[in-house]
Specification:
- The protein is mainly beta.
- It has a domain of 71 residues: Thrombin, subunit H.
- It contains no helices and 33 strands.
- The strands form 9 sheets. Strands 17, 18, 19, 21 and 22 form a 5-stranded antiparallel sheet that branches. A 4-stranded antiparallel sheet has the order 1-2-3-4, with no helix packed on it.
Length: 352
């Protein structure tokens, strides 16, 4: 029976992930040793959800939106610390110091991560979201939401101290909270870098194509700094993924990988997609970008020049591209985990 892995998280010793399938295989939470993939513990849950995600803080937190389940588990031994039933939106909870930011179908919630007690709740103005994606810095949380069909999108910021809305982005060209006739709009996860917030969007027309956009906003008030319109491309893939370092934004999209100046929106370099399949994710460590480039190709790329720096790692997992854990917690050793519906492949490749 195939297992689904939605995401992985890591600390300096171990990697954590959840496997599960909606039919026949319950959710399992795993902890494996970072350097060789040896399993250290496993928790079996009588729940069924292929979309279960994990988030790491003082404990490891598991969110299963289809199972309406949120819980914390001890990192050392996997024992349950607390759990609650909540009608979650799809997307990973976010740990902010000793607090856990979680979106459900009606609002954004801040819990005490130590015991699961509710600190505040902010009701969503937009319709019930299929996705709610989060980023935070200081006392500000930025949220992007995408609802079902018809498709609405919202981008707004909350004060983490009170849960009150600080700003809501309204694009003059009708991006925010607008229904696109016979099309679907998706907003990717927000990212905060310095004094700016960034997010990407895709608009999918009935023929399966449409433009992608990347936005830079002032974190303080949500005003638009710049917007980039990307080429028309096949969007039968995941939404754009963003990463950032030293003032530069890196965008993984169905078109390829691009480096963008975070202040001006000017493109620095671009690398075309390698092979078919979804361009899923990227991570940065030591000036190197590790990019799931499509078609099962995993590339190491110079962040400064946009050039491939080593051999391509080919991961033949039924045509599904790998996801990359952030390698920085492992210091010099680079550990890559490839994810697909047919399982997990452990990779240890040289030095970061």
């Amino acid at each position: 029976m195939p297992s689904y892995v939605e995401n992985v998280v890591s600390d300096d010793q171990a990697v954590y992930f959840a496997t599960g399938k909606s039919e026949g295989l319950p959710i399992q939470l795993h902890k494996v040793r970072a350097l060789d993939g040896v399993e250290l513990w496993r928790v079996n849950l009588e729940l069924y959800d292929e979309l279960a995600t994990v988030t790491l803080g003082a404990d490891v937190y598991l969110a299963a939106p289809h199972a309406n389940y949120l819980a914390a588990f001890n990192k050392t031994n996997g024992n349950n610390v607390w759990e609650k039933r909540i009608e979650l939106a799809r997307g990973e909870p976010l740990v902010v110091e000793s607090r856990l930011l979680v979106a459900d179908q009606e609002g954004v919630n801040l819990f005490d991560a130590r015991n699961g007690h509710l600190v505040w709740r902010s009701k969503l103005a937009a319709p019930r979201p299929a996705w709610a994606l989060l980023a935070a810095r200081g006392d500000v949380a930025v949220v992007t939401t995408t609802s079902g069909d018809p498709s609405f999108g919202s981008i707004f910021a909350l004060d983490l101290r009170s849960g009150r809305e600080k700003w809501r982005f309204e694009d003059a060209r009708g991006t925010n909270s607008i229904v696109f006739d016979s099309r679907h709009v998706w907003f990717g996860p927000p990212m905060i870098l310095g004094d700016y917030a960034y997010f990407a969007s895709e608009i999918k027309a009935p023929d399966g194509t449409g433009p992608g956009n990347v936005f830079g906003l002032h974190l303080s008030n949500g005003s638009l700094v710049w917007r980039i319109d990307m080429e028309k491309a096949d969007l039968n893939a995941y939404y754009n993924y963003l990463a950032g370092q030293n003032g530069t934004i890196y965008v993984s999209s169905p078109v390829g990988l691009a480096a963008i100046d975070g202040k001006t929106g000017n493109e620095i370099w671009r690398l075309p997609r390698h092979g078919g399949g979804a361009t899923r994710s990227l991570a940065i460590a030591g000036g190197i970008i590790y990019w799931a480039a499509g078609g099962g190709n995993l590339l190491a790329i110079s962040a400064h020049e946009g050039k491939v720096t080593g051999p391509t790692i080919q991961v033949n997992l039924d045509g599904v591209s790998p996801s990359v854990t952030s390698p920085s917690p492992f210091g010099a050793e680079l550990v890559l985990v490839a994810l697909a519906v047919i399982g997990i492949v452990w990779r240890r490749k040289g030095r970061a």
